[in-house]
Amino acid sequence: MPDPSTAPALSPFYRPPALPRVYVGGFWGERADAVAARTADILYERCVAAGMLEQINPDLPVPPLRIPFAPGRTLNMQMFWDSDIGKMIETAAYSLSRRPNPGLEEKIDAIVELYARLQAPDGYLNSWYQRREPEKRWTNLRDCHELYSAGHLLEGAVAYYEATGKHRLMDIMARYMDHIAARFGRGAGQDRGYPGHQELELALVRLARATGKSRYLELARYFIDERGQAPHFFEEEARRRGEKPGDFHFRTQEYNQSHRPVREQVKVVGHAVRAMYMYSAMADIAAETGDDSLTAALEALWQDLTATRLYVTGGMGASAANEGFTADYDLPNDTSYAETCASVGFAFWMQRMLGIAPDGRYGDALELAAYNGALAGMSLDGTQFFYENRLESVGDHRRWRWHECPCCPPNLARFVTAIGRYCYGEGEGGLAVHLYGESTARLLIGGGRQVTLTQQTRYPWDGRVTLTVAPESPCHFTLSLRIPGWCRKASLSLNGASLDLASLTRRGYAHIEREWLPGDVLQLDLPMPVERLHAHPAVRQDAGLVALKRGPLVYCVEEVDAGAGLHRLVLAPDAPVNARFEADLLGGVVSLEAVLAVEEAASGAPLYSTEAPARREVNVQAIPYFAWDNRAAGGMRVWLRRG
Q1: CA 337/CA 389 separation, integer angstroms
Q2: Is 408 known to be catalytic?
Q3: What integer is the mean pLDDT of 573-600?
Q4: Is there a shared CATH topology between the 4-66+74-423 domain and the 427-525 domain?
């Protein structure tokens, strides 16, 4: 097995560093510490409580069915428990990279042994089908998540290897991947199938990078290239089961993005998480192979999503009915689905687009999703969670301890603890800084040369970033720094001398090429004025409303601060909005303060009147959206009425 810190590269494009080589402090360090101290163990304990470990233990009787089948549904959420275990293992791996936890590591090792004993002689590995329905394996890829579960287990295996050096689970999963490669493909006797719920595709790229074996990349590419081709595999598969191809719960192949080949897709449709995982894999494969046709398709999809279907928080998926997209500009606030997993998946996609080349649009979107749509899915202490992320609530939307479909807690937890991999990119001739935050990274450029980058900053509360560059010896390379699109007056200096930022900046990144010396210091200043955001007029739900944003953070107003009836608050266009850091609020945040008008009716006023309601002034405090519902229950609004 290769050294996990220096796994072989398959192409010269920018790639995230191995997590053990990045230490994150400050804002993200606090979040990662919460996961390492509490969430990682909670995820394990709740997997045990659900009965997941009983299902994978071949020495025990098959446990009872704990989650019933929904009427008219083929899928049972217990079918994809392996995926939840895989994400739990991945979270544990990243947490172990951050702080030792011998008890948790011992438990993960025991799970690995259960899977080793469960694995079939031919390499197949799925606890539901091996323990409950062995005669049905590989009979319903569209609905039943076999390949999806394999993907999450594989990602957990690679992460555990990178964090601990233990490769037993990765060996088990590599054997399973070889079984899958023999089963699916365009060769004689193979099924031309692909995942109903995308995930395995991006996991295979991770395995290829970890092992240096290109056959896993080729399998990922096959799954992407085959999707949506004629004859349509899911329709053929349904006929083999004796079913009508269109007679399934969601009725349309748009739901799983197999309605046409991926290079022909120009609209973001269907289930939001599946879409984000597929686009992530497409971007990985484009980076590894230089496939410009995939890059062009992704650009079209990016334009569609960001122009018509993305929430201001970086959330996505307006409807609970399909856990995904509806029509252009349909972005309801009080019924928004905006699944946590979808924002996490959006961050995955944006990171992989940055692997093709630094581009500020993608870096900005990564930051937006990370700080807002994704991070809101977990309480500050790492113990409670959101599945859906509303942008408006009357107090009836609260975090929960657990869910019968517990995909979001481990998905967000693995993202938060791996955030260091999203901050930086390593390339043959340079390094890139995508996200700012207190951190130290030991990064590699061409030839295995190591450069240590250290960020000192209070970001996201303050936009000043001091970045110290320390190559092992003088070294010529390009350092690319993202200049956030929300910052209009950025400035940059090197060793005290101002740099012409405009001449250095291309596509949202400042590229500094020089002979770097140990101890070189860059000073980046990113002023953070408060911005008022207005939605496109076609977004009917936001007509006449305004949202507040400062730096990377979207803000909201909570009932605990502003009282009941948040819909009555009106923000005048000229009302000053002031930012202030409050160390004792929500663990320390910058809040926004403004004087708003609140509409009131006189006692006994009729339901309808020819007179406009009276208004009085009230001081209102707004908090970062990610931190809402961490205090008393109550209403919340992101969008405020514009006066």
Answers
A1: 6
A2: no
A3: 96
A4: no
